[in-house]
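Changelog-linked ticket: 2-Phenylacrylic acid example.
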Amino acid sequence: MTEKLFQPFTAGAIEMQNRIVMAPLTRNRADDETDEVGEMHVEYYRQRASAGLIITEATQISPRGKGYIQTPGIYTEAQAAAWKQVTDAVHAEGGRIVVQLWHVGRISHVSIQPEGLPPVAPSALAAGVKTFTHKGFEETSMPLALTLDQIAETIEDYRRAAKLAMEAGFDGVEVHGANGYLLDQFLKTGANTRTDDYGGPVENRARLLMEVLEAVTDEIGGDRTGLRLSPFSPANGIDDADPMGTFRYVVPGLNRFGLAYLHMVEGATGGSRELAEGQSIAELRGLFQGAYMANNGYDREMAVEAVESGRADLVAFGRPFIANPDLVARLKAGAALNEIDRDTMYGGGAKGYTDYPALDAA
Ligand code: 8OZ
């Protein structure tokens, strides 16, 4: 009998050949002037097309949304045309691919922002973490609080990115609402001290996320829109005074959009799955009416169990997909996995990117 993990699944309008998802993975190999992907990206994603779904690396929706060197964009026609080479290659292999729409908010540095401007955020509060610049790791810069006009422009940037994503041949988009970036900064009290309609009570802190989802789903349909959240992750210096309270409001509020899926980082991003007293992923999952994608530290056994039990519909694997282009075949066969080379995770060329061997070549 084939485990459910390896059987097809349809999330919204996206029909997948199995329930194994390639998680979004920042690799810093785009053109730093144009924010375009190139030939190397085509090969990298093509190699991984046996995943049920690929979620691209986080991709900025505007120059202001960029926070690291060499991350790709989806805000110009040329960027969309470059991404079209990737989506064509993945589709030719029978795969599906969505682009992760990203605005870093305060997780940026003046040297990466247009005209050396300060990054933008809900409030003028520095994250106190590092980002990757041309000089190596540097402390993130003190941000400026977004004006109401700038918030409206940012929502339109998400809308335009979703439109460009369709032109680029993507099967949909994933809105990045996790890991201490802009939307998570608005959601959580540690980064949002606004006193207008976008700060204070949770209905206000969640407003930007809801307005972004309204714009994106209006543009391309809820059934082609996914969302990633990380309610309990301290990633990028984020924290919330009452995460269960915040997400008990946010998650049911998503149901009206008819999303393709909700993707949750179940713990500390890329780290511990342990939650504090009173915190519950299961409770939050129960408040969402659509497909549920689990993520964070899954291995074969955990993934099979999660899908078999109905706790999850899809399971996203991150680092294992960096080192194993044929992760699906390896999991199916119960084969050994390649080890990841941490030195080539961020930046560089083909080494550690497109040269990990598949099983038949290993
Ligand atoms: C690692 C390095 C840079 C960015 C995330 C987009 O955590 C990222 C990211 C991860 O969501």
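Closing comment: Example verified and attached. The chain has one domain: 4-344. Residues 26, 58, 68, 179, 235, 269 surround 2-Phenylacrylic acid (CB under 6 Å).
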